[in-house]
Amino acid sequence: MENIxxxxxxxxxxxxxxxxxxxxxxxxxxxxxxxxxxTDHYDSFEFDKVGTGDCLGVDGVAVSIxxxxxxxxxxxxxxxxxxFDARFIFSQAKTSPHFDVGDFLKFVAxxxxxxxxxxxxxxxxxxxxFSIKTLVYERAxxxxxxxxxxxxxxxxxxxxxxxxxIEKQIDGEIQTLRDMPYLFSEVTWHVHDGDGIARLYxxxxxxxxxxxxxQRHVALPPISGARATYLGVVSxxxxxxxIQKENGELNKGLFFENVRDFLGDNNPVNEDITKTIRxxxxxxxxxxxxxxxxxxxxxxxxxxxxxxLSQFQVVNGCQTSHxxxxxxxxxxxDMYLTVKLIETSDVDLSGKVIATTxxxxxxxxxxxxxxRPYHRKLEDFFNAMRSAGYQYYYERRPHQYDxxxxxxxxxxxxxxxxIKSFVSLALEEPHKVHYYYGSLLNDY
Length: 444
Hints:
The structure is a single chain. By secondary structure, the chain is α/β, with parallel strands linked by helices. 37% of the residues lie in helices and 19% in strands. It has 16 helices and 13 strands. Strands 6-10-9-11-8-7 form a six-stranded mixed beta sheet. The chain has a five-stranded mixed beta sheet with strand order 2-1-3-4-5. Strands 12-13 form a two-stranded parallel ribbon. Helix 7 links the parallel strand 4 and strand 5 (186-192). The relative contact order is 0.10.
């Protein structure tokens, strides 16, 4: 590849995930799928779940149900028993520095065939995803809204076709997909060039920095485990900019440690938030009518009223954040949001903040799994075993070891992988390894 920065990132990615024995094009396909999906699906992304092997036209497909990538029909049946949301995410990746409109149109044609009814017209590598798609539509009565479809074409060059005839040609072809009746609430397409996919890779490493105007803030007294804690208000418009990706989409990876996923616009609480935003007489009272959000950051550098945040998570306020983002065109300059900002690298303090700020309503059992004291002892056990020659690290919280270039991803053990290993080996049920780990927790 000619893109030096992207080449360096791909090399780092290959080393972290020990993919050096694979051909470059396969490495790049995995790199692209990782960049596109890891941020939004931290605990359910696996290369084998989304890769399509030698499939013609599509290099990756992910069916996301309720924010979880599902690649087995059994899991899909569990996740669709109650109301649910569904996303279909397709990717095609090319190491070429040149955009090939023919490849893109073949990509779109394969996706169109996927949403048809004829299985024989679908490549064999997509048959499992096709069966899950069929189930999703069979249970359409439980969908909060019709599924969304996202097509992402990744290549190493620089996309300079905006406003061109080629872009109009692509959008016309995408429109034929949008016109398939009764199937989608939204169909979007993106071309991620070398610069764009590089930005997404930084986001997967939680290497996110934002400058945020933090008006009328106060520093709270010293708190054990926190380098600093602040309470104040942020303009709703500035907050929305803070939680966006470079491409303007909502960065769902910022809410991974907020254990409650977005409940949808039709949820009663979210409807009330939306009503406040749209009421001209109430919107300037937003800071006192809303509970606000809690942010935990590894680094906070204040300079007057401008705060630079690095490696941060919104651990409470997922509903408010989504509603603000979805109504950003309605926001005005006189709308403010109350923000509690905690600077800490203490995993235990972060866990306690997450547990206490998210305990007001029912959440999934797996959400609090690694917050329990047992997991601190488990981390200590892994640390002790390294002195005996083992190389594994236990990741109690997401991104815990992202800053360690000396640790290969192969040696980072998460709670989901331990749960699956235990079920497979100790309980002697290896056929359940492909299940989502939250389902295993509920079963056992």
